[in-house]
Design a protein that fits this description.
Length: 77
């Protein structure tokens, strides 16, 4: 099976995937805050991944949409 997606569809798939990954990583950080279980290196990797996703989201989204997303979903480090 071969799908032909338009550029806007590919971008939306990417944004949706990154939103879900960001949410999952944010949940991991919240659980770790309650009951620390991550090794220091793993915690650093999770934090770097969250930051990287937020940077990519800023580039993919319109400015107003990104700031709204950041207010609702962003992680304060």
């Amino acid at each position: 099976m071969k799908l032909n997606l338009k550029a806007c569809q590919m971008e939306q798939i990417t944004v949706t995937y990154l939103e879900q990954m960001h949410h999952d990583l944010k949940c991991e950080l919240q659980v770790h805050d309650v009951d620390p279980y991550l090794e220091l290196d793993d915690l650093a990797d999770v934090i770097r991944s969250v930051i990287a996703i937020e940077i990519v989201m800023k580039e993919l989204m319109f400015e107003d949409a990104y700031y709204q997303w950041k207010l609702e979903n962003g992680v304060e480090l």
